[in-house]
Design a protein that fits this description.
Number of strands: 0
Helix content: over 70%
Structural class: mainly alpha
């Protein structure tokens, strides 16, 4: 579904529209769940770039999963740096990101 949505969004809105980040994030999350961090990483990096300057919760989400993809490819320094950015984005989103902040902090502590 995410691949189909990505094609539709890109065709309708252009490849650089912030809405394209939704299916990119979904594809990245699915790849992570499958243990395919090297597939997830470029998808999530693109989603992060598209979400920059937009909703902080959604940016934090992309950064959070992007950090996990970096860790999965062996880039622990990059994972920690991006996770720190995700924490800041989540804080900018206020109370609606409380659960995500806790989960991210637990994951970071496990690295």
């Amino acid at each position: 579904r995410y691949r189909r949505a990505l094609g539709i969004f890109e065709a309708a809105l252009g490849p650089d529209h912030v809405a394209v980040a939704y299916p990119l994030t979904g594809l990245g999350r699915v790849a992570l769940l499958r243990g395919e961090a090297s597939v997830a990483r470029p998808l999530l990096e693109r989603a992060i770039a598209l979400r920059a300057g937009h909703d902080p919760f959604e940016l934090g989400e992309a950064q959070d999963f992007g950090a996990r993809a970096r860790a999965g490819t062996g880039d622990l320094r990059g994972a920690r740096a991006l996770a720190t950015q995700a924490e800041a984005s989540y804080r900018g989103a206020g109370d609606r990101s409380r659960r995500e902040r806790r989960a991210l902090a637990a994951w970071l502590a496990s690295l």
